[in-house]
Automatic annotation (TrEMBL):
Gene3D superfamilies: Band 7 domain. Plays a role in the regulation of glomerular permeability, acting probably as a linker between the plasma membrane and the cytoskeleton. It comes from the Eukaryota. GO terms for cellular component: cytoplasmic side of plasma membrane. This is Podocin. It holds the Pfam family Band_7. Keywords: Membrane, Transmembrane, Transmembrane helix. The chain crosses the membrane at residues 58-87. It comes from Scophthalmus maximus (Turbot). Residues 85-244 form the Band domain.
Length: 292
């Protein structure tokens, strides 16, 4: 009875090639080794311009067509009643993303959109420009300074399908990504570079955020840095750092030496320069009178 030997079950899957079933296509059955055994093994093959899910098998495709045909017939027969529920008005600045039997469809709108009952799940996506602000956070600069920096960011959605499929909470994810990119980017700069090249750093920061949010169907249009107080002066700075005046019209577009010169004359330390210039001018005038 106990003479039969037992063999241990293999800890891994068999190396023999597996064949796809009726409901899964052969191309989508092969998985990358890095994603095996995870909960996101099935990823719809949806690109920016092609919203057709090519991973659907032929049997599943036939079943979907039969169900869609039956629901469409029932909707057409009872149209005077179902018309109040299946017809949606979509303005020009919105799109509707439809999941039909759980599979993504191309975005619909603007105009009158037909949504089939029972088998369609839909969501409105606003394409207008939105804005949010990053509260001031303390950033340690490259020269050892500690500066309080925030940002005002404007963004818009250019791909409504990817914004719904790729990320669950778009606003929270974008805010967190922008805050991390802000901290990481400014940590490589000095205090003087942050204060004098604020516009240029905002453009570079927008490009960095766009690289990370492009798979979400989102595009950042503008990033404006807001400088706060200098918490800690840079290491080895004897004369102190240069602080930009908070509200000076036309100063934001200046960069380099011109911006530093303008801020020098607008800073309290540079207020004595005009008086010294007037004294020099008066001395020169007296000298000219003596010569004449």
């Amino acid at each position: 009875m106990f003479s039969k030997s037992y063999e241990l079950l293999p800890q891994r899957d068999s190396a023999a090639p597996r064949t796809p079933g009726l409901f899964v296509a052969g191309d989508s059955f092969t998985q990358r080794s890095s994603h095996r055994g995870l909960s996101f093994d099935y990823i719809p093959n949806v690109s920016e311009n092609d919203f057709t899910d090519t991973s659907q098998g032929w049997m599943s495709w036939i079943c979907n067509l039969v169900v869609i045909f039956l629901v469409s017939i029932c909707t057409f027969v009872t149209f005077p009643i179902t018309g109040w529920f299946v017809l949606k008005t979509v303005p020009n600045y919105q799109r509707i993303v439809v999941f039909r039997l759980g599979r993504i469809c191309p975005p619909k709108g603007p105009g009158i959109v037909l949504v089939l009952p029972l088998i369609d799940q839909w969501q409105r996506v606003d394409l207008r420009t939105r804005a949010f602000n990053i509260p001031p956070c303390q950033v340690t600069t490259q020269d050892g300074g500690l500066l309080s920096v925030g940002a005002d960011i404007q963004f818009r959605i250019w791909n409504p399908v990817m914004s719904v499929v790729s990320v669950q909470d778009l606003n929270a994810s974008t805010r967190m990504t922008a805050q991390k990119a802000l901290t990481y980017s400014l940590a490589k700069k000095t205090v003087r570079e942050i204060q004098t090249e604020r516009v240029k750093l905002g453009e570079y920061l927008g490009m960095d955020i766009n690289e990370m949010t492009q798979p979400w169907g989102l595009e950042v249009d503008r990033v404006e840095l807001t400088l706060g107080s200098l918490v800690k002066a840079p290491e080895g700075s004897s004369s102190g750092s240069l602080i930009m005046p908070p509200s000076v019209p036309g100063l934001e577009g200046l960069t380099g030496t011109i911006q530093q010169l303008a801020m020098h004359f607008l800073s309290p330390s540079g207020s004595l320069q005009p008086q010294q210039g007037n004294c020099l001018c008066s001395k020169c005038t007296h000298y000219d009178d003596d010569v004449v």
